[in-house]
């Protein structure tokens, strides 16, 4: 409690990380030193709060993939600062970045990248083969957690199926279950409905709504207005510059 007569602090106190902020970019730039150099991101400021569903829209070549790669710790900015879940990423080495990525981020791509001769549950479990995190998760086995992840995306009844027997929307939901296995704070999605018709797109968007209602943070890159209008907030990117959308 602050007494009425408490004096205001004479100088700014160093900012503590806000637990509600998952992504913070402060004047982030990415220059590719090709000849001539390409400024793929320019002074990008962005804050994404926990539980937000943000869409990023922009034409081809505007910097969307570069932004996703920076956010996913697959690439480093050439200027500015990036905090992921309160961690300032600039000073981290490759191993620390890999560990942070594995514990905080799930990736979803346009292509589902499912192995055709593995069942859906095996595909989900394979997430951990590529993750530094190993076998965290207490007493539950990997298979138990794969089942939970499939239940969470509404595909518990597809356990043991091969991907070929599923619709496109179901396959993308398997890929989302795989991304959820490590209990990430954030899903980074690059054109997640780019290979889907409108009905299957709807099933993925419905799942995004459910995940958001459960507290997941989503950042979705898309060309599709039907997809971006379902986000809780939209930003545009053009020539590497981000702008907030009104309304
Ligand atoms: P988008 O995903 O929106 O289509 P990108 O992020 O892939 O756009 O690319 C943004 C700009 O950066 C483009 O002009 C592209 O040609 C350029 N670019 C992307 N990657 C590289 C690279 N490795 N070297 C040089 N230029 C690149
Ligand atoms: Mg791209």
Describe what you observe in this structure.
- The chain has one domain: P-loop containing nucleotide triphosphate hydrolases (Rossmann fold, 3-Layer(aba) Sandwich).
- It is α/β, with parallel strands linked by helices and 247 residues long.
- It contains 7 helices and 10 strands.
- The strands form 2 sheets. The protein has a 6-stranded mixed β-sheet with strand order 6-7-8-3-9-10, with helices on both faces. Strands 2-1-4-5 form a 4-stranded antiparallel β-sheet, covered by helices on one side.
- The structure holds adenosine-5'-diphosphate (ADP) and magnesium ion (MG).
- The site of magnesium ion has 2 residues, from α1.
What are the secondary-structure elements, in order, as H or E?
EEEHEEHEHHHEHEHEE
- Per CATH, the class reads Alpha Beta
CATH architecture grouping: 3-Layer(aba) Sandwich
Beta fraction:
15-25%
CATH topology: Rossmann fold
Specify the overall morphology.
Answer: globular
Distance between the termini: 37 Å
Describe the structure concisely for a colleague.
By secondary structure, this protein is α/β, with parallel strands linked by helices.
Topology:
Elements: E1 21-32, E2 38-49, E3 53-57, H1 64-71, E4 79-84, E5 87-88, H2 94-104, E6 105-108, H3 120-125, H4 142-152, H5 168-180, E7 186-190, H6 198-213, E8 217-221, H7 225-228, E9 233-238, E10 241-244
Parallel strand pairs: 3-8, 3-9, 6-7, 7-8
Antiparallel strand pairs: 1-2, 1-4, 4-5, 9-10
Helix pairs in contact: 4-5, 5-6
Magnesium ion binds next to helix 1.
